[in-house]
Amino acid sequence: EAGVAQSPRYKIIEKRQSVAFWCNPISGHATLYWYQQILGQGPKLLIQFQNNGVVDDSQLPKDRFSAERLKGVDSTLKIQPAKLEDSAVYLCASRRIRRGNTGELFFGEGSRLTVL
Amino acid sequence: SQQGEEDPQALSIQEGENATMNCSYKTSINNLQWYRQNSGRGLVHLILIRSNEREKHSGRLRVTLDTSKKSSSLLITASRAADTASYFCATVNDYKLSFGAGTTVTVRA
Question: What DSSP line would sit under A43-102, residue for residue?
Fold first, then answer.
């Protein structure tokens, strides 16, 4: 079974520029998550999708961040315009929904963003 | 906001020793999970313990959960150099999964 795929692995941009990250979850996984992990900290949830609907985006800075999950499969996370504090690793994870079982998350390798 | 808080922040041990880390949380949970993250990589699920369970084992891992104290511990026995990583607890409540800040474990050869 293929894992969660993310691209690009690394991205360096200047502040006020835009950037997009792509995630392809494990086939059949209905739930998809985007987390932001700042160096030395734990992952912070940005947005959670169930199929192509948003379950939780309460911590997504909506003035600059946007995310979509077309057709309930791939997802894109965009930042526009980027700020210095957006420098972080953006982790995508997916989970299969089983009745009565919250289940484990499967993570991609992450996309490391550096904003100069 | 992060639900879990791990303790200690960092731990350095000799190969073959045991490593213990703790996680405290604030609200009720459905289950608690532990993940490992090697440097520059994604997180890997280690073990899940449900709110009605008190202890669980998986290979060299032992997890305990005390819901009255809102705390969990992860024990890694007979540590190896390959166990060098950051370990995160994640609390699950109503399908929302929240991570703590993690414990960085260094195993010295």
Answer: -EEEEEEETTEEEE-TTS-TTTEEEE-GGGS-EEEEESS--GGG-EEEEEEEE--BTTB-
